[in-house]
Amino acid sequence: MLDWDDLKYFLAMAEQGSLSAAARKLNVSQPTLSRRLTALEENVGAEIFSRTRTGLEMTALGEQMMNHARHMQDDVHAIERLITGHDSSLQGSVVISCTEAIGSLWLVDKLIGFRKQYPGITVDVKVDNAVSDLLRREADIALRMFRPVQNDLICKRTVSMAYGYYAHKDYLAEHGMPKTMSDMKKYDFILPHDEILAYTSTEHRKSIGAPKGAAFRSNNLVALSAAVKAGYGIGAYSCLAAANDPDLVRLFDDYVVFSSDIWLVSHTELRRSARIRAMYDYLGDLLQDNAAAFAGAA
To answer: Which residue spans traverse the membrane (predicted)?
Structure first.
């Protein structure tokens, strides 16, 4: 008889294409996942995957199984959402999915007030730059930098997260303070990869022309921020994160390099849960109360 957990592992391997990637997604060890796959194939009596140098390739049987397993997974998640949506207790956990820029640098510190108000609820912050699937219960609530399009999700735009030009005070002591925007071309720059700008406002996505050169580049906002703090040069930095750092100097006062709207998202059924509704409302109020800090105007 098939075990649903084995099918869940099977789906992760099919979607990720390798044991290592599936293990990371499921938060289990690779040997454990390998044993579960072997047990499943012994139970089925045939190979589901072909092992190759590049990863796993599904057999014809695996392809057929995947379609049915996905339907089963969707049904299980629908039942879970239905049950959770009728939970009126303020006990249990609430999983919040957010990016490193918000989760690691701001949210953890701010949610201590929620814990004091609701001591029976476990705060579970899932810091991940990948988008969590709320329909599959990978998270209960998400803070996203784009508006979702799925019909089963509810969302509201909360605040705009602004980035200004910053540099470490030691870098400016060595190279001097730029007095005009045209002066910036003479300085070392910390630049993001293009995909980071995909979720930013075109209204504030400005260019200063060709700088002296890129001293550092990354596709990760936290890495870019770390480069500014390390003194690589001048770069865009979250005004929210820089506000309490005495080593960082903001250039050109209220100039905004780019900004990104923060959307608060949940599933329609999950918001009927008392604990998820409590967190959703708390986050909405928390973000609005800190709107000026996110915009760099505090």
So the answer is: none
pLDDT at 200: 63
Q: Structural domain of residue 52, as residue ranges?
A: 4-85
Q: What is the pLDDT of residues 186-217, one digit of tens each?
A: 899 998 887 776 666 544 445 544 456 689 99
Contact 163/236 with Cβ under 8 angstroms?
Answer: yes
- Global pTM reads 0.67
Both 127 and 271 in a single domain?
yes
More confident residue, 259 or 15: 259
| Spatial distance between the Cα atoms of 82 and 11, rounded to a whole number of angstroms | 22
Neighbours of 70 (CB within 10 A): 14
| Cα separation, 233 vs 215, whole angstroms | 7
CATH classification of the domain holding 209: 3.40.190.10
Question: 112-133: buried (b, 16+ CB within 10 Å) or exposed (e) per residue?
Answer: eebeeebeebebebbbeeebbe
Q: How many residues does the structure list for the chain?
A: 298
Radius of gyration of the chain (CA): 23
